[in-house]
Amino acid sequence: MPKLTVLDIRNAKGPCRLADGEGLFFEITAKGAKRWLYRFKLAGKNGMFVVGRYPALSLKDARLSHQKAKSLVSQGIKPAQARRDKKQANIGKEKEKKDLRIKSFQYVALEWIEQQRQAWSVAHARAVRETLERDVFDNIGKQAVDSITPPEVLRILRKIEKRGSLEIARKVLQRMNAVFRYAIQTGRAAYNPAADMQGVLKAKIVEHMPAVYDKELSQLLKDISINTKINITTKLALQFTALTACRSGEVRNARWDEIYLAEREWHIPAERMKMRRPHIVLLSVQAMAILHRASVLFGNKGLLFPSVRDPEKPMSDNAMSKALRDMGYRGIATPHGFRSSFSSMSHERSGFASEVIEKALAHEEKNKIKGAYNRAEYLEQRRQLMEWWGNRLQVLEHGAEIIPLSRVSGN
């Protein structure tokens, strides 16, 4: 029968060794350490096993551990060896878990995104991660990247297509493809199952952004100018978007420190451009007039067209589109449509070379040799092109070129 009580243990003074029965002892060493010992005999030899430390191991738990150790001895097994074997087995299991984790699709994908961060904008990195989290990780995220098959990839794509998100399906396939390529490059896979998905996606019906030309464009410009319900920030941003033929996101986030008034240039940094290359926008007399008005209304620090609610933040990405819809132009015109208007009308009527127009739109030359040759930027030709466009829009809206440069500059 056990001899010790909880009170005995609590009141014990060291150094000492108190017997509990059947080879179990409570010991306080000369250095003050408190522990449970099990003294046993195996194959004719005496042995001592440290059951555990006190108070981490209570009297009750020490007795349970002691019984397990006794059972091992009765089977001819040293308790200490059994503990070492179990520890090694646990280490092996943990290693297996770790190996599986770092070879999982999700781990590889997140590592790939991290590797790309310097080349991507914050918004793009977030968008890539969100598409994978939403459509991929729940399906194959925990699987080893080298165990995923083409049918599993296809099931993910078909599921996205069923909800009508054909463009998302295309992006997901593109991003999965990149993750598998990275897995191969880093030695965690030897095969890319997404590479076999060529031609498997449903074809997307190309929908061009609604745009207006000539008389319709003339009416749109007039409607924007005379509308009293549009917030002045949104109105100026729409007019500036039309005059520069820039993307709405570039205009919404435009800052005064990017504007070079003396040179009449707007330098958009690479991280805000679709192709991740810096772009110079040449500003017409009419575009400069918009900037002059914006500076009078909002100041010439921070954002050109700040949010009404918070001047430190850009207007919402829906503000300009909503303004056009509220004016009755739903399905007829969009902020992005101004780019189409500029492109079509410039190619047809401006007399400028296509390369100049495409450079003004920040479209990169697909022919790498030609693209390198054309890095002269065509700045002077583009300046003349944007003056032509500003005058063209002015004539469409007012019927005459009425804005002298002296008034724009404030002289």
Structure class = alpha+beta
What is the strand arrangement across the widest sheet? 1-2-3-4
Q: Beta-sheet strand percentage? A: 5-15%
Number of helices: 18
Summarize the main sheet.
Answer: 4 strands, antiparallel
Shape: elongated
What is the CATH first-level class name of the largest domain? Answer: Mainly Alpha
Helical content (DSSP H or I, runs of 4+): 40-55%
Whole-number total of structural domains = 3
Briefly note the CATH topology name of the largest domain: hpI Integrase, Chain A
Amino- and carboxy-terminal Cα gap: 107 Å
* SSE pattern, N- to C-terminal: HEEEEHHHHHHHHHHEEEHHHHHHH
Query: How many E strands?
Result: 7
Mean pLDDT equals 87
CATH architecture of the largest domain: Orthogonal Bundle
Quick one: CATH superfamily of the largest domain? Intergrase catalytic core
Weakly predicted, low-confidence segments: 366-375, 402-411
Structure commentary:
By secondary structure, this protein is α+β, with helices and mostly antiparallel strands. The protein has three domains: 6-93, Double Stranded RNA Binding Domain (2-Layer Sandwich); 105-197, Tyrosine recombinase, N-terminal domain (DNA polymerase, domain 1, Orthogonal Bundle), CATH 1.10.150.130; 214-408, Intergrase catalytic core (hpI Integrase, Chain A, Orthogonal Bundle), CATH 1.10.443.10. The protein has 18 helices and seven strands. The chain has helices at residues 6-11, 59-74, 79-102, 105-116, 122-135, 137-140, 150-162, 166-185, 214-226, 232-244, 248-252, 285-298, 319-329, 337-349, 354-360, 368-373, 379-398, 405-408, and strands at residues 16-21, 24-28, 34-42, 45-53, 259-260, 265-268, 279-282. Mean pLDDT is 87; it is low at 366-375 and 402-411.
